[in-house]
Amino acid sequence: MAATSGVQNNMLADMLTAEQTFREMAEKKARALTAILTEVAYRTDGAKLEAMRQKDPTAPGGWKPDDWRTFFSGAAQQASGWGDAHYTVTARLEREVALLKQERAATAKAVALLPREVATPPSPAATQHRVIVETPHYDIPRIPAAYAGRFKIPVGVSKADADLNLYRRVSALKLLAGGLSVQVEIGNLLGAESGVQGRSGSIRRVLDALDTSGLIVRQTLAMNISGNAPTRLVVARLSAEGATLCGIWDWPVVESEWERLLRLHEGEKQEEHTLAILLTATSARTRGMSVNILPEVEGNARPDMLLTEPDGAKYVEVETGTRLHEENAKWRMNAALNGGTIALVARNVAERKQLISDCRNIGSGQATDVETLIATKFTEIPPSTPLWAETW
User: At what angle are helices 329-337 and 2-55 packed, to 10 degrees?
Assistant: First the structure.
């Protein structure tokens, strides 16, 4: 009996091993097919796919067959004829897959012949969106009578403190008009002149007063980084009345980074993604970089930001969602924009490691994550501190 039981156990173990092997092979094949479908989808209608990805961060990695069928049926409607639209699109997709295989093989040969150093991407055009960061040093403009009530100073405050408070309020409005959005960054710039910490009570009361007066609008964004207490980031923008006042003072009012994300990137729905982009932008400027949120580029790529240093520029993707990254077209397009390298920002260290693993077969790159960026206070970061936590 014991011998029979042992044989049965061995047979059962072999069956389980075989089942696991077949399942792994099936999953690997499914991932490969999904990658090819994603690639074809980008070539078929990249704009449509990117719009769907923004609404659903799991797309297209989590799509079922019906989802793929629905997507490609939209492209099929554009085909000529009536009854053969499906076959026309299918034939075109088959040609696309064959062409992609040829291009991949040719690219692999070309990459092998490339020198280790690659050219940096060109600097962005002057028409690209960019905030105007100026440390305030100017005389306070005359406050119109209609707005005088919005700049009231509490009773009992000395004249010197009242003048400083008024100066900081007007300076905060100027920084917001220039396009800044993150409260801690604005606070650091306001406090830098007098040696006050950006998170101090005197700076916080300045922004509280502007909020109460209706000249600015604030919101607290939240992001769960690693399962602990959420990370929060206070952002601000000019209200309609605040923008009108800046116009009276002949100050140029730039669309803020937060407003740009709300308008072009569904920033309100993707709160965590918005937080990660704005925090990365602040971290980059702290290190002396120039930041361009949602830069305009040719083709289907939609990078989250462009960071410019004296030695070159990099288009950066900020990834906070759960997506299929094996042979993902998103990273290939990022590498193409950056002359063969990838630049990415993840949610935390663990996800950064996973993304790097997914991207290694595409090319070299640099990466950091929100968890690492918030480990050090902005006021304690010297400009020489590298932004990137890892290079490969």
Answer: 50
